[in-house]
Queue: 2 jobs
Job 1
Amino acid sequence: MLQANRLFRISKELQKEISWIICYALTDPRLKILMTVVKVKISCDLNYSKVYISILENDKNLSPKSIILILQKSSNYIRYLLAKRIRLRVIPVLQFIYDNSYIKGIKISNLINKCLNS
């Protein structure tokens, strides 16, 4: 029980810090779009983590796959910045995954509204 609570608190802290790093510390102009860190899943030994990214505003020149690839290439730098901001013995290896559940939710909500209004 205590381990699960600790993992939850660490994942929420990582989510907050990774979001801040992506918004303010990365200087790549291709990443100046509206995106959010939806969720961070951490392994039990804190060595690996999956970071789920939702892209809310997309530039037509970049696909979500290419944005995730850019983030994956800069994951070592993000880990370096995380080590400066968070006191953990081991900073987990980051794997970025595209999460389109927000987009699907908006589409379903629009379809429901369209059915109710007609």
Job 2
Amino acid sequence: MSDGVMVPAPAEGQGALIQRQPRGRLEPEARALVAGFAKANPKWDGVVVIPSDPSHWVHLSAGEVVSFQSFLTVRLASALGAEGAVPEMEQLGDTMVRPEKLAMHLRAAELGGNRDEILGALLGAEMAATKVFWLGQQVVVLGEGVWADSYVEALTKQGVPVARS
């Protein structure tokens, strides 16, 4: 990984944020989005979700990035022909409960020609992996468009109080 500032670190600042475990890089563009939210909400503590390629789940506390996790869900959805799909919530739930079956769920959805199930399975795996981040936390999804809509819907279906900014 190239140079950057190690987390925990202030959200505001120049350059990328780097994390050793899990290995991650929050690019300057994503860091700027988090910094803008932190500046507008200086005492906020919770999780900021950036639905992009890659997507980022950032634990923010009092203007500091404590940790983050990043995912290739959007890229995988595009590669599997599910870009612009609406996540099928039953498939999302099934994959969340059994993320080890992701590849099987994707194949079944592919055979059925169901792009919504593909996206549901991919988001279900991401939601399972990030559960320790969002469970019991304030969550805000940054952005507009179909990807932000999908993340908000997925979180809402899990009973997570989610805001949008």
